[in-house]
Write a structure and sequence with these properties.
The structure holds two protein chains of two kinds. Chain A has no helices and twelve strands. By secondary structure, chain A is mainly β. In chain B, strand 4 and strand 5 form a beta hairpin. Chain B is globular, with a radius of gyration of 13 Å. Classes of the chains: A mainly beta, B mainly beta.
Chain lengths: ~110, ~120
């Protein structure tokens, strides 16, 4: 069975600080990887995704993530956060074999202080 | 991008009543829809997967007689919480896959409060 772990449950940063949120997954096969964001009171939005190809993926709003297969990791990064990045971030994985059941991590709450 | 809607966005009901939540794909045909439950400050937990025209597949621990799922068309899936109780209060989110895309598109969620 797939599992996803996010090590940081709550992160507090000042504006302009750099961000890295950890995500590790457990699955023996080929996977698709996602990062979703949930702003306060809003629904889940896709930040970025990795299916294949270049392991460094760029998403919306200046976010990027790097897939490191040997480490089963897909960490999310942003060089300079803004107050508007305050949200909850979820890492997720699906089996690329066609059954698109998504397994979510427990989420990381990011609080950016102006 | 693909749009998924849910109705209602918020519902309050008395204990023992049933509540129906609709999930619609507005601009694509959804071959598969998923229903999730999100408790406060927790992640999304998959409840069931529904494919148009067939019975839903429930995750372990989810009571299929309590959470009835119907995926009658390629644009609509419904989740009915039968005989709701306060412990069923939660945020229910649907997602849909279709239109050739490999990713899921999420609805805005429905907050259910059972008194």
């Amino acid at each position: 069975a797939q599992s996803v772990s996010q090590h940081n449950h709550h992160v507090i940063l000042s504006e302009a600080a750099s961000l890295e949120l950890g995500c590790n997954y457990s699955y023996g096969g080929t996977v698709n990887l996602f990062w979703y964001v949930q702003y306060p009171g809003q629904h889940l939005q896709l930040l970025l995704k990795y299916f294949s190809g270049d392991p460094l993926v760029k998403g919306i709003k200046g976010f990027e993530a790097e897939f490191i297969k040997s480490k089963f990791s897909f960490n999310l990064r942003k060089p300079s956060v803004q107050w508007s990045d305050t949200a909850e971030y979820f890492c997720a994985v699906t089996d690329s074999g066609g059954y698109q059941k998504v397994t979510f991590g427990t989420g990381t709450k990011l609080q950016v202080i102006p | 991008g693909a749009v998924v809607s849910q109705h209602p966005s918020w519902v309050i009901c008395k204990s023992g009543t049933s509540v129906k939540i609709e999930c619609r794909s507005l601009d694509f045909q959804a071959t598969t829809m998923f229903w999730y439950r999100q408790f406060p400050k927790q992640s999304l937990m998959l409840m069931a997967t529904s494919n148009e025209g067939s019975k839903a597949t429930y995750e372990q621990g989810v009571e299929k007689d309590k959470f009835l799922i119907n995926h009658a068309s390629l644009t609509l899936s419904t989740l009915t919480v039968t005989s709701a109780h306060p412990e069923d209060s939660s945020f229910y989110i649907c997602s849909a896959v279709g239109g050739g895309a490999a990713e899921q598109f999420f609805g805005p969620g429905t907050r259910l409060t059972v008194l």
